């Protein structure tokens, strides 16, 4: 069928009501958002953001309401979509933006693709990877993996991806989203090593929309975390306090979930796998810890310093 592209959409969307189908690849995926309120009677008040791209650039795509439970888990990073009968809206100004793996990619930030169950009823098709043709010109998913030896030199709030062997995972803890609020964030601390430093990655992992993965993070699993943010220098001794925290677009993968993921082709991921092959599993198991209370950043060792 006659296709359009994101660049053409941005130039012509105001003058059209119906749009030609789009062929795009998902590059980033946000957590699922529930926006229900007691006074509003909505069946499925869900929403999820994706960043999708074709040869012309990248744009946000929003999945609404009952389409979320139907499609959210099938729409993975790397999935190719054929979209028809979608709507175009001006972009929501306050949403978070992931850091693209390809810094050269053009971003269309003024509009977003809206997928609804009606007005108009969107038609979504997932194209299997083996049927994707090179001449479609769809960009590959790119990552920004770092090693532990590079972490200390990165600026506060820098976005990156990491892979490591889990050596510690804490119990799940809760923090209030706002003071006096009844909503909580669920999170847990983890340590992961990659052989490039004596220090582990310290990871603050908030529960994303992947409960099956979040609950199964155990020592000795290979952990991949994407779109993590660097948190630097919370105390006078910054080298002790650098850690990584999840963002709205973070994805977490553990052993058993890696097969077929786009990051398996990344050079730093391959280097980590090579390093792991040289390690003795029995030696690593002795150094692992699970559970317990993990205060971080650590309080000073005397009241005077406190």
TrEMBL record:
Signal peptide: none annotated. InterPro entries: NA-bd_OB-fold, RADX. GO terms for molecular function: single-stranded DNA binding. PANTHER family: RPA-RELATED PROTEIN RADX (PTHR14944). This is RADX protein. The gene is Radx_1.
